[in-house]
Each structure stands twice: as structure tokens, then as C-alpha cells.
Specification:
By secondary structure, the protein is α+β, with helices and mostly antiparallel strands. The chain contains 14 helices and 14 strands.
Length: 377
């Protein structure tokens, strides 16, 4: 009896939902057409001509006819009452599986789809001895349907495949809970009450190090900057996306005569300065050395805030995603050819910064930054 009742409730819900969808689709057509008809009627009253009214009425009737045929085409085949109800029930259950619920704002989204990066892609990047990913790789990702991604693309002036990427990160590989944790937040800067910047004290650094939202050990980890700031994330979480590209420096790095004429773009210190000085003398530097310096730079800035203004690519108090990658590889800016550029949205909000598109374009054919793997149309 309970099974029969449950089935009856399900079928009733299916019929109700179907009726609501039909009404909704009808209103989607009829409301603007009714508005047009009213405007035609008002035009008739104002110019004493019935031409507009007749045209609006004809358009309304034509749309109603098209709507009728659309509804007829979507109805199940006539297979008897029992078959029709069963098929309607199947369609209802399948449709429920395409809905996604959001609370802010409160809404339902139909058919959000799934990420385009699939399990086979992730295994190719990560699994075993044949894994493509190596520590130091730059990752660019993108999504379909996010408003901020569309704004970033349009602000960045992205062309070609670069338009698919709206976020940048540094893959660092394994992180441990001792040595790496001690380096985390080492160069953290915080803003005081009057807007100035100062080095974080030991208590502020320890708070970040011990917060799993900012630092966590793991086998395959990414460091990147998002709205909450610079933090560590597992690669499995990071690659839940629609588009992805992996960029890598060559094994050996040496500046050309032309590149030696260009001064460093930012003030360097520590390992980055040492690498730049060796390159300045004409020496070759191994990729592993540059990656080690970039890794320490990334760890040291964990906890830094996000640069929502996109204007901090020289002082590096806080970071946008691509400014963070730019900062980590500051020792080889001249070699990569990556530099801040002016970006603007609709001619407004002009900023000199580094965008994900700039990082991608630094890997154009013939450049020093190589594309190891990508998933774009």
C-alpha cells in the first residue's frame, strides 16, 4: 500500500511540475507578446490606425501556433495512459537530476552540466611514474558560465585560446608538516589601522601556518591566490574545472644578449637575486634551482591578502592569482618575457598588472615557457 501511495505522490508531483513548466514556457512567450499587443493597441489609439494592432495580433496568434506545436512535439508518444504516465515519471526523475540548488541568491539552475576536465585527464596529469605534472609547473584554468571569469577575459583582452583561462596557480608537489610549514607565511605582510604595511609578527604567522584553510601538507599540492588570499590546495580540488593548461620552464636557463640588456622588472633579494646575478654573468641556471626559489617564495607569502584592485604587481603586499605566479618567478622575468601590461574593462578601470592571459601568451610558440598539456576547444 505504501509503495502504491509513494508512486501516486511521485506521479502527481511529475504532473504538477510538468504543468508548471508548460505554464512557465507559455508565459515566456505570451508575456512579451501581450506587451507588444498592448503597445499596438496604444499606437492605434494614438494615431487612429489599426495597422499596428492587426500586426501585433497576427504576431501573437503566430507565436501561439508555434508554442502549440512545440508543446505537441515534446509530449510523449501515445502509448496508452499507463505508458504515458510511466514515461512522464521517467522524464521527471531525469529532469530532477539536472537541477542545482543555490541559497545565495535562492534559486534553482537547470542542467548546470559537469566539468570538462575528466578523470582520464587527471590520471594522465598525476598518476604514477608517467605523470605529466612536475613541481614548478604553472597551471591556468577556466570555467564556463562564471561572471567573474567573463569579466577577467574581457578585461584581459584575451584572444585565441587565452580567452578560456581566468585563474593562475603554482604547482609545488609534496608539502610536509615540518620544514614546509616552518617556511609558510615567513614573508607575510599585514596592513595596520592607518593603511600602512608591516611584517606580520610571530603570532600572526603561526595563526596562518596552523590554519588548514591556508596551509595543509599533502602529496600533490597547489599554491594560489583567490578571494581569501594565498593558500594551499590539493591538486584534485584545483582541477575541477572546464579548461586547463600546464606551462613549464626548460631544464636549463640562460639569458640572450638582448635579454641581458633589459634590467630586472622588480626589486630582487635572496635566492631570486642570486639567480639573477648568475644569469647576468652569462651563466646557465638549472630549472630545479629556479623552481626551488619559486617554491620558497610561494610558501613565504601564504596568508597574504587578495589584490582586488589588480594594482600590486611591484610591491607585492597582496596578490591577484597571476600577480602571485609573476612574483614567484621574479628571478627569471627577463627570460620568460612576462611583464605587466595595461588592462581595462570597456576603457575603464585601467590597471597595469599581469593577467592569466598574459601568462598564457608568454608561452606562445617559440617562447621560453612551454605548453606541456592543455584542454581547450
Amino acid at each position: 500500500m505504501k509503495a502504491i501511495l509513494d508512486k501516486g505522490v511521485l506521479l502527481a508531483a511529475a504532473i504538477l511540475i510538468r504543468l508548471m513548466l508548460t505554464i512557465y514556457k507559455a508565459l515566456a512567450w505570451l508575456v512579451p507578446l501581450a506587451t507588444l499587443a498592448c503597445l499596438g493597441w496604444l499606437a492605434c489609439r494614438s494615431v487612429r490606425s489599426y495597422g499596428w494592432g492587426v500586426a501585433a495580433l497576427a504576431l501573437l496568434l503566430l507565436s501561439a501556433y508555434a508554442l502549440y506545436h512545440y508543446a505537441e512535439a515534446t509530449l510523449p508518444e501515445s502509448v496508452g495512459t499507463g505508458g504515458w504516465v510511466a514515461r512522464l515519471s521517467d522524464r521527471f526523475i531525469a529532469w530532477i537530476g539536472t537541477l542545482k540548488f543555490f541559497t545565495s541568491p535562492l534559486c534553482l539552475v537547470e542542467d548546470p552540466g559537469s566539468y570538462k576536465i575528466k578523470g582520464t585527464d587527471i590520471r594522465k596529469l598525476m598518476d604514477g611514474d608517467t605523470a605529466l605534472l612536475q613541481p614548478g609547473d604553472i597551471l591556468l584554468r577556466g570555467y564556463d558560465g562564471y561572471v567573474d571569469g567573463e569579466l577577467i577575459r574581457r578585461t584581459g583582452g584575451a584572444q585565441g585560446s587565452g580567452k578560456y583561462f581566468s585563474h593562475a596557480a603554482l604547482y609545488v608537489g609534496p608539502l610536509d608538516d615540518k620544514q614546509d610549514k616552518a617556511i609558510a607565511a615567513r614573508r607575510l605582510q599585514v596592513q595596520d589601522s592607518d593603511g600602512g604595511w608591516r611584517e606580520a609578527n610571530d603570532g600572526e604567522k603561526d595563526k596562518v601556518r596552523n590554519d588548514a584553510a591556508y596551509f595543509q601538507p599533502g602529496k600533490q599540492m597547489v599554491i594560489h591566490s583567490m578571494s581569501k588570499g594565498v593558500h594551499v590546495e590539493d591538486i584534485l580540488t584545483f582541477v575541477r574545472c572546464d579548461y586547463l593548461v600546464v606551462l613549464r620552464l626548460p631544464e636549463q636557463i640562460r639569458l640572450s644578449a638582448e635579454e641581458l640588456m633589459n634590467p630586472p622588472l622588480v626589486l630582487l633579494s635572496g635566492d631570486a637575486l642570486s639567480i639573477d646575478m648568475r644569469l647576468e654573468r652569462g651563466e646557465a641556471v638549472q630549472r630545479s634551482e629556479v623552481v626551488a626559489a619559486a617554491r620558497d617564495s610561494a610558501l613565504g607569502r601564504i596568508g597574504s591578502g587578495y589584490d582586488f584592485q589588480f594594482d600590486n604587481c611591484r610591491t607585492f603586499h597582496r596578490f591577484s592569482c597571476s600577480e602571485f605566479v609573476y612574483y614567484c618567478y621574479k628571478s627569471v622575468h627577463r627570460y620568460i618575457g612576462l611583464r605587466p601590461r595595461k588592462h581595462a574593462f570597456a576603457g575603464l578601470f585601467v590597471r597595469t598588472t599581469v593577467s592569466p592571459t598574459d601568462v598564457y601568451e608568454a608561452a606562445d610558440p617559440g617562447s621560453r615557457l612551454k605548453i606541456i598539456w592543455k584542454n581547450v576547444p
